[in-house]
Design a protein that fits this description.
Layout: H1 3-19, H2 23-30, H3 34-48, H4 50-80
Helix pairs in contact: 1-3, 1-4, 2-3, 3-4
């Protein structure tokens, strides 16, 4: 694996953990695709730093379990502002 990919994977994990960021937010911040963020955190980071990978995974799992709530809130806001 190339050095810059390893560095990016660690940076991404740290960003996710520090900001409780979603995959979409992280992808936007680093200007990469959601699938790259996911692959970096779930596959590549496991080989580089398994402990960091587990911490980042916890945040992503939490975000995934809450996403239906955020979606509902976004829809609610949309309709509240349409007067």
């Amino acid at each position: 694996m190339k050095d810059y990919i390893e560095e990016r994977a660690v940076e991404i994990a740290n960003y996710i953990i520090e900001n409780s960021a979603t995959v979409r937010q992280t992808a936007k911040k680093f200007r990469i695709s959601k699938s790259t963020v996911h692959k970096d955190v779930t596959e590549r980071l496991l080989q580089i730093n398994p402990t960091l990978a587990r911490e980042a995974r916890k945040v992503l799992d939490t975000n995934k379990s809450e996403r239906h709530i955020r979606g509902g809130m976004a829809t609610r806001e949309k309709y509240l502002h349409q007067h």
